Amino acid sequence: MRVAVTGHQGFIGSVTVPILRAAGHEVRALDTGFFAACSFGGPDAEETPGRWDMREATAADLAGCEAVVHLAGLSNDPLGDLDPELTYAINLHGSLRLARAAKEAGVARFLFASSCSNYGASGGDALLDESSPLAPITPYAISKVESERELLQLADERFSPVLLRNATAYGVSPRLRVDLVLNNLVAWAVTTGRIVLQSDGTPWRPIVHVEDIARAFLLLLEAPRELVHAEAFNIGGSAENYRIRELAEIVGEAVPGCTLAFAEGAGPDPRNYRVSCAKLESRFPAFRLKWNARTGAAQLAAAYRAHGFDRESFEGPRYKRLGRIRELLAAGELGPDLRWRG
Questions:
Q1: Is the residue at 141 inside a domain?
Q2: What is the pLDDT of residues 160-193, one digit of tens each?
Q3: Domain of 90?
Q4: Are 115 and 79 in contact (CB under 8 A)?
Q5: Model-level pTM?
């Protein structure tokens, strides 16, 4: 089918688009281009910047498309905290404008990249499923929760929103990010010989490889309507919940000889949750994750070494979403509303 993919130049999008095309789908790529210059390990197939802004989305952008894979947005908690009102303007109101445009254009299925951070401050050791109370504590997570609520209001016999609550992503991508927990810990290990924790290491996190996220989007894109219509799915694996300290130990196995350290001021993190992916696993029993934390950490360590990833690369803005946005703001290429100038 013809699929519009927003955020195709992002960490997830640049992995998802080739997987969709390999499955025979035609992709219309839409991205604002913030990270067009941030390729990891050389150029990839999605270099066109586009400078499309979902805050200006129209039905014409999606004409002829049968589905939308909506990945675009301000993509993590620190970036969301840069300006909470901008987070809501882009992630919430921009997403709803896009969804309404999709419905007007006759798009049948709208896959929304949500987040397990919606469970936020749930705490405890219990596994949370899609019916568990949501407890978002950051502008990013709040924008996702409110988007989910509004998207479900648009559902009808012609328009099927599907909510993919992704666990914390990790892994190698043509648009690498080192502001994701496992990617970050491996980057510390490879470039400094230290594994530095930003918290006390006790919070739980569900994690999932970026390739498995992309495969889940393909799965739910192609699934029969009655299995996915107006439903949420936790994307990951029930066995892939780890305390941050456990992830540090796994990184130590992938990069032997490292020492463990805590960042200045490291303490408890209120974002603390474990999730169950039993719904995805039971409804689609043939779907299995290809990756786990250990194989992912090994992949990252090998890729960092192969591409000469050093401390300067790690500490610079290229592979950190907030750092890149601040770089564009400081250069005057973006205005304070995060719109391109010129």
A1: yes
A2: 999 999 999 999 999 999 999 999 999 999 999 9
A3: 2-177+208-241+274-292
A4: no
A5: 0.96
